[in-house]
Amino acid sequence: MSRTQKQPSYLGRPIQKKTIGDRVVRFRTALSNTILDVLKGRGWQEVQGDMEWDFYWCDVGWMREVFDHFYMEEHCRINHFRNHYELTRKNLMVKNLKKFRKQVEREQGKLEASKCDFFPTTFELPSEYHMFVEEFKRNLGSLWIMKPIAKAQGKGIFLFRKLKDITDWKKESYKSQEERRNDDKEPVETYIVQKYIENPYLIGGKKFDLRVYVLVTSYIPLKAWLYREGFARFSNTRYSLDSIDDTYIHLTNVAVQKTAPDYDPEKGCKWSLNQLRQYLIARHGIEAVEDMLKKMDDIFIYSLLCVQKIMINDKHCFELYGYDIMLDDKLKPWLIETNASPSLTASNQEDYELKCRLLEDTLNVVDMEGRLTGKEKRIGGYDLMWNDGPVTLEEGGLDCMSAPTYTTNTHLGCFNDREKQLKQLFRSLQMAKKTTTV
Ligand SMILES: Nc1ncnc2c1ncn2[C@@H]1O[C@H](COP(=O)(O)OP(=O)(O)O)[C@@H](O)[C@H]1O
Ligand SMILES: [Mg+2]
Fold first, then answer.
1. For 46, phi and psi rounded to 5 degrees?
2. What is the pTM of this model?
3. For residue 241, how far is its CA from the centre of ligand 1 (angstroms)?
4. CB-based contacts of 429: which residues, under 8 Å, 6+ apart?
5. Using CA atoms, how far apart are residues 292 and 286, in angstroms rounded to an integer?
6. CA-only gyration radius of the chain, Å
7. Per-residue pLDDT tens for 368-386?
8. Cα–Cα dist 28/289, whole Å
């Protein structure tokens, strides 16, 4: 997105505070898209290269190469956990989920463990090839999808029905690597092979998946926030199982769809989660949609819990995850993958404004300026969904003379009245401060 794009008017509004104590917050960023606009719009000061910073929006390469040798003062913040890949590498995520499912079954029984059945059957290749072949034979005729573990944006992905198709791939893959490296012992690139969801929920005959944003500010205790807004990404071409080689039908990545000959950047191929929520409620009723959303909450929480114990919990770190979720024709949500660097590049003005709101609220939660009490359950478009346990909203109680009932504090796809909420929040924080200092 070009930096000349119109900046949303709420950036730099008066409720902003841009200092730590008396000093302006100094930031560094590896990206020059929406995040740079938001950081600047906040009145923070950009620093370059080796200069000292308070806040760094870094890339995962920096985490791998520099983080371990880098000293950070207490107040500094950075946007990744050191071993974020435990959840965001496709093969590791599935390994960790499988392990966690077994543990839940041992400790809490089959029913609870069945809540973890939200990822399609998956194997790592080449290491689990034999296990995959056994499963393949048990499900002859099924469709499978191959995905390289270290690529993104739909790159290197293909679908197949016959085992022969991957024997050919294996040979091809060995051959091309031999040619490249002239070393016939070089292993093939690691892939995952996964059951293809053949019955996706379709709208207008087209397949889509959902991008949902979850912010983790601590793993021990686990503290996770769910953003109200997100979007559905549609494919450009009507769904069909006749042409399994057509990526415009089967891969919903914007990076893939925008290369389609009839792609229109202004129209785009996205719906907001609010639009989708309303569409689904109109078709299936509120109960069915709430049941689906509850299952999505389970996906976020169980996937975070499955890596909680192995994450290096550093108080300087937070992570903004981009979840890829698909719905099948029975409205069951499936976890496709979790991204550590969800795209912050905007595909049009609407998308730009959404990403600015998301990032602005991410900075509000991270709270470099020290304005919050730490007890907030809602900050702008973020709702606290897990705080060492489920976060609930109390309803009923004294006012309506009934016993209180508890519902989860998640509002995915609900109206995001963040500006109003932020104004109220910061006003009440200021009032509380005044009364304690008087
Ligand atoms: N198991 C699956 N069943 C159906 N479609 C899938 C499946 N896995 C991936 N896809 C489609 O392929 C796209 C890209 O897959 P994903 O795992 O997100 O890889 P990438 O890292 O390249 O984005 C998804 O957005 C979805 O549209
Ligand atoms: Mg993806």
1. -80, 135
2. 0.93
3. 15
4. 371, 372, 373
5. 10
6. 23
7. 999 999 999 999 999 999 9
8. 41
